[in-house]
Structure formats: structure tokens, C-alpha cells
Amino acid sequence: MATARREYFGKLLEPGLREIFYEQFNQIPSMISDLFNVNSTDNPYEEDVSIGTLGEFPEFQGTVEYDRMYQGYNKIYEFPEFAKGFKIERRLYDDERYNVINKRPQGQAISAARRRENDAAKLFINAFDSNYPGPDGKALCDEEHPSKAYEEAGVGKEHRSNKDTRPLNHSNLQETKNDMRDFRDDRGGRISVVPDTLLVPVILEDVAWELIESEKKVDTADNNPNIHYGKYRLIVWDYLDPGTDNPDKAPWFMIDSNYANMFLNWFDRVPLEFAMEEEFDTLVAKFRAYMRYNYGWSDWLWIFGNDPS
Description:
The chain has 309 residues and is α/β, with parallel strands linked by helices. The protein has one domain. 31% of the residues lie in helices and 24% in strands. The strands form three sheets. Strands 5-11-8-6-7 form a five-stranded mixed beta sheet. Strands 1-9-10-4 form a four-stranded mixed beta sheet. A hairpin with a 4-residue loop joins strand 9 and strand 10. The longest helix is centred in the middle third of the chain and has 23 residues. The protein is globular.
């Protein structure tokens, strides 16, 4: 038994370290499932397309009027690889330095979770940056999103903005909600966008909480009822770096979660895995984690972003 213990120490360690790795990973808070439509896939890539609509429903005049849908904008999801490893020397196992050994899979799990959260948050951090365009060639939050129907038939140009510069306060929250409810489809028709989620960085947590959890209006002597009370789910994301220490300059977002479930996607091509290999000559066991995923959006109708900076 002693010989087996010495020769295969990596294999003896693997089950315990695997358990520590996944237990640590699963304990780390993640906002990905709260915001994205999370999917698994076995395909080498995934393709999504923005919505195209039909025109007004006409009165029947003796023959059916046929219409067409204008093709939307395509989004291709390819899946880069992510990997990281650590090593455990034989002497640590022999000396039963488990307090040192156990920290390594914990650190690796934290690194994997941090990478996923950072990547997911980048979609919102770069939401106003034209250097990170979406399928329609515009930033996620832009003042004028294009329309294939307008390009081909001259309809559907108006109300295609989902960006402003308003700081987060009571009146600006109401104005943003109204702007979202005035969103139009690719042909200019009204659509039922109902914002139900407020996404903010940590610096805006107190302001956002007061706005949606106070029964009366905040910072007013009139004590009028607060129209926002209880209407929105609040998501405060540590990884949503505002780039400022001034709350009045911090970006914030309103989201329709139903439309987000249609157009904001996360694909796990290879879920996070944990594996081990032992080197005979160097008396070192190597452990590595590996994952493949990608994320993005195929249409912008689910979000409105304010960037007061």
C-alpha cells in the first residue's frame, strides 16, 4: 500500500481536489444566469438572428394580402478555449501539507469564475463603445440602430435609440422606462417592451435601492407615492466597473428580462472541467481546468443604457 501511495499520489489526491474545486466554484456568486439566456451546445458554432416583423394586419378585402419579413442581423458565436493549471509536488503530499494543497484548486476555481464574470460584464461596460459593435454594426446602446426594413423599403427608422446620458434619479428612471415602452420594431411598429430590471454598479446601489423600494418619493417634502415602488428587480454587479467615483457619472441600465431571454445569450460549449496528469520523472502531479464559452446579443430591444459620463 505504501508503494501505491507513493507512485500514484496524484490519483489519490484528484477526487478530493476535484470536490474542493467545484465546491469553491459553485459558491462564488454569479450574475450570468440572472442576465443571460444560458445555453449548452455541442456545435462548433452557434448562429442567432435579430427579429424581423410583418406590417399592420389589414382588413380582408376579398383576397389575402401577403407580406414579407425583412431579414435581421446575424450573430455568430464561436468558442475560444480557456485553460489554467497548477502543480503539486510529491513532497507536499508525503508531508501531508493539505492546508497548502487545498488552496490551489480553490484559487483555480476563483480564477475561472472571475474570468467568466469579467467577460460577461464587459458586454455592459462596453455597451456605449462603438469599438465593440453588435450584429447591426452599432454599439449595444446607441442613438440610432439601423433597420433592414428601412434600408430596403424606407420604413422603420424612428424610435431606434436605446442610449442617453441621464444620471440615475426618480425622474430619469421614469423617462428611461417611457423611452423603452416607445421602442419600435424594424418596420416602425410598436412592440410591448416592459422594463422590469434595473442593473447598476455598486456605486449606485444605495440610490437604486431607495428609488425602487421606497413607498414614497425620495428626497421630496411632498411625500407623494413612488411610482417605481416594487416594480423592478435590482441587480447590483460588482464586476460592472463604472470607471468613476461620482454616482452622478456612473452608467446604469434598464432591462426587459423577457426580451433579454430572447436576444442576450451565453453558450457553454465545454462546461468547466477538471483533470489531472502525473509526471513520473519529476514527481509532480499537474491539475488543469478547461472551458469553452461565448456570449453576446442578437438584438438590442431588451435594454436601455444611460451613460452620464
